[in-house]
Amino acid sequence: MLIHSVYFWLKPELTEAQRADFRRGVESLAGVKSADQVYVGVPAPVPSRPVLDASYAVALTVMFRNLAALDAYLTDPLHLAFLNTYRTYWTRVQIYDAV
């Protein structure tokens, strides 16, 4: 199993409608066939801790059965369309892949 975690920091000037549109765009990635499970969320309302980074706007976690499935996801037309449509919405993206 491979866990692909992506964190997005959105531009502050985005409207609420643009933020909702972005969220729907991230959720659309669940349609990629090589993705086994997809979770989309925002920072949890938990007490602040020194080791906690809640500065991101949207989090995406995708579970894959193996590296080949991740490779297929990265070149999938849905993923490429997401990148082409929304890359101007964020100021930063951070990705962590774990096995």
What does this structure look like?
There is one protein chain. With 99 residues, this protein is an alpha+beta fold. The chain has a single domain (2-46, 54-98), classed as Alpha-Beta Plaits, CATH 3.30.70.100. It has three helices and four strands. It has helices at residues 16-27, 67-75, 77-86; strands at 2-10, 37-41, 58-64, 90-98. It has a four-stranded antiparallel β-sheet with strand order 2-3-1-4. The longest helix has 12 residues, at 16-27.
Judging from the principal axes of the Cα atoms, what is the shape? globular
Task: Indicate the mean pLDDT.
Answer: 98
- Give the proportion of residues in helices: 25-40%
Compute the CA-based radius of gyration. Answer: 14 Å
Number of strands: 4
CATH topology: Alpha-Beta Plaits
Strand pairing plus helix content: what structural class? alpha+beta
Please count the helical segments.
3
Please, how many domains?
Answer: 1
Known CATH architecture:
2-Layer Sandwich
Output the strand order for the largest sheet. Answer: 2-3-1-4
**Main β-sheet: number of strands, strand sense, barrel status?**
4 strands, antiparallel
Tell me the name of the CATH class: Alpha Beta
pLDDT < 50 stretches:
none
Order of helices and strands: EHEEHHE
Strand % is 25-35%
Q: Could you give the distance between the termini? A: 6 Å
